[in-house]
């Protein structure tokens, strides 16, 4: 991943993740990987708020290809993020089809921005505003409440606030992740097959 970020000219900060064996926040034997992943996202969001004064933060997983023009397109993406008054924008997510034009919010030189519903998944890469980051930490960074949605980034970070996804994707899952559930594995493979182009992604 460091090599890929270097190739597109992005200076990034890596996070070591949340250990399922030693982190005291992992109190259950059920869904430990999912809980660890969620706390990892929240930790990164907390680092964004603590270590920078930037208006927006971009967060991603560690198994993605990046569009070769990622750096060049950032201004275009952040400008439209502001214009649309978004809280969260999915830059890389799980999609296997061309989005319905009826849900298109905006068209820029290189991308289209779409509204999405509850059936859109994936936190491969996303951008959030500083105010939304504070909102997320305030709601999910303490004790889990019975009224909260499942403690997973797919059910929380990407489902609140004013939201949109980007298409074509600026980040694509690399298709190498092995998932135990056959249906999920096939779905992730289909996402890679339908979105990755070796001439466009690094």
Poorly predicted regions: none
Please summarize the sheet with the most strands: 6 strands, mixed
Strand tally is 8
Order of helices and strands: HHEEHEEEEHEEH
Strand order of the largest sheet: 1-6-3-7-5-4
* Euclidean distance between termini CA atoms: 10 Å
Keywords:
202 residues; 32% helix; two-stranded antiparallel sheet; alpha+beta
Please provide a written account of the structure.
32% of the residues lie in helices and 19% in strands. The protein has 202 residues and is α+β, with helices and mostly antiparallel strands. It has a single domain, classed as Spore Coat Polysaccharide Biosynthesis Protein SpsA, Chain A, CATH 3.90.550. Strands 1-6-3-7-5-4 form a six-stranded mixed beta sheet, with helices on both faces. A two-stranded antiparallel ribbon has the order 2-8. Helix 2 packs across helix 4. The N and C termini lie close together (10 Å). The mean pLDDT is 93.
Q: What would a concise description of this structure say?
A:
This protein is α+β, with helices and mostly antiparallel strands and about 200 residues long.
């Amino acid at each position: 991943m460091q090599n890929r970020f270097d190739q597109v000219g992005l200076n990034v900060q890596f996070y070591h993740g949340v250990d399922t064996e030693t982190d005291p926040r992992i109190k259950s034997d059920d869904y430990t990987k999912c809980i660890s992943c969620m706390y990892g996202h929240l930790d990164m969001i907390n680092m964004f708020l603590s270590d920078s004064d930037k208006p927006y933060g971009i967060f991603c997983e560690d198994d993605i290809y990046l569009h070769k023009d990622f750096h060049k397109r950032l201004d275009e993406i952040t400008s439209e993020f502001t214009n649309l008054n978004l809280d969260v924008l999915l830059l890389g997510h799980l999609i296997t089809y061309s989005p319905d034009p009826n849900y298109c919010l905006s068209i820029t030189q290189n991308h289209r921005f779409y509204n999405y519903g509850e059936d859109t998944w994936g936190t491969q890469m996303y951008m959030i505003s500083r105010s939304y980051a504070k909102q997320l930490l305030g709601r999910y960074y303490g004790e889990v409440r019975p009224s909260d949605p499942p403690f997973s980034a797919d059910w929380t970070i990407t489902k609140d606030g004013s939201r949109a996804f980007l298409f074509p994707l600026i980040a694509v899952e690399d298709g190498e992740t092995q998932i135990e559930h056959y249906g999920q594995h096939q779905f992730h493979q289909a996402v890679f097959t339908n979105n990755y182009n070796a001439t466009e992604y690094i």
